[in-house]
Amino acid sequence: VNIIMTLWTFYALFGDDIRMLGTDSTADPVFFSLTIAAMAFYLVEIFLSCISKPEYLWSFYFWLDIISTVTMIMDIGWIMDPIISGGGTGAAKEAKKVSVMTRASRGARLGSKASKIVRVIRLIRLMRLVKLYKSSNTLISKEENKIVDEEEQVLQQMMQEERQQEDKEDALPEESKIGKTLSDVTTKTVIIMVLIVMLSGPLFTFSTYGDETNSYQIGLDYIALFDSNPNSSGFYTAYNSYLNRHLIINTPVTYLVAGPLIYDDPTVDATILRNNEETVVYPSNYNTNLTYVAIFDIRSSVKLDALLSILQTIFVCIVLTIGAVIFTKDANDLVIGPIEQMMIKVQRIAKNPLDAAKEEENEAVAMHKLEREERHQAKGCCGKKKKEEKMETYVLEQTIVKTAALLAIGLGEAGNKIISQNVASKSGGSSICLLYTSPSPRDLSTSRMPSSA
Questions:
Q1: Taking the CB of residue 84, how many other CB atoms lie within 10 A of it?
Q2: With contact defined as beta carbons under 8 Å apart, do 235 and 304 qualify?
Q3: What is the pTM of this model?
Q4: Residue 246: which pLDDT band, with cuts at 50, 70 and 90?
């Protein structure tokens, strides 16, 4: 199941960009069908997660899955093309009417602006990779615990009690609740911060809200200046200059109407071009009945945008991974690790306070020797080494150990069971009643010693 959902997740991240980069409009139905299938799988996953995981419903991951699934509608051209393009440039080209072409142009520009934001919103689907990574790690750890070689099974049968004791001593401690919570919160924070930064790009860019002037627009405006005299030499000179200049660029003109003159590139099949692979340009101050319209083939720019979008998604994946790993490592080193170390020592004290005190004493002696050797080496190599200050968690850890050692020494062997029960118990442990008697000096002076026979 994880493999299938991983494949669908990679398709959701890169499928639409691959469609724009490597195919034409004839392959669109296949990609649109795959997108609908991916949405169906995600909806089933969300439904099953709501049933099997009570904490999943209305949680952060629930809303993120809903949003990422809904954004896939924007990759379905059967739904988005009629909304954005307003009929497409193909229909406008056949009709040869400025009003239709104007609507097509506005729709194409709106689609271009919307695609920038859609590519950023698509990055929300990266959260699914995080979920799949966590679930796969859980499954791997479970499988590793279940895998046992045949030789080890024979040894377990022959030395069952001894093996069980060794397994308990050598077993790694489970991840603490605070570790899981802090790791989860850190990952969420990193993802939200990266998405906000990425979304701020198109939101605070002029091209998202306005149209930048280019040679397409300026040249057509210049041709339209001869609207009153379309048969003059200046009109033909402007027309030929505009056409020749824009036939040799990476996004060439494929259709041009300027008064009585019409150019239609026979080498370009307009039926296989998508709406966002063409751009329609018309004069900025058009107010006559003559037609001045140019259509450009911008497939090279669209393919470059798709390639850059793939690289951006990969880059964001790397940033999210590095950021989450660094923040989690710092949290583990400074907070979670010391806390889990304290829990290990508390469990050791609960098992046998006297043995725990002896082990801690041996560890302290070994650490002292190691630190002394390091200081000696550092002094011989590069002078006096600065003494590192201990963290508060280390001080608290040593306090727990010393307190337990004092209790073990004070109560002795008879108090080991009492200490173990009270430390290991989560409900307060057991209580005992003790009677202390202390004779006063007055009692000693008045007491009589028994006479000897």
A1: 22
A2: no
A3: 0.71
A4: very high
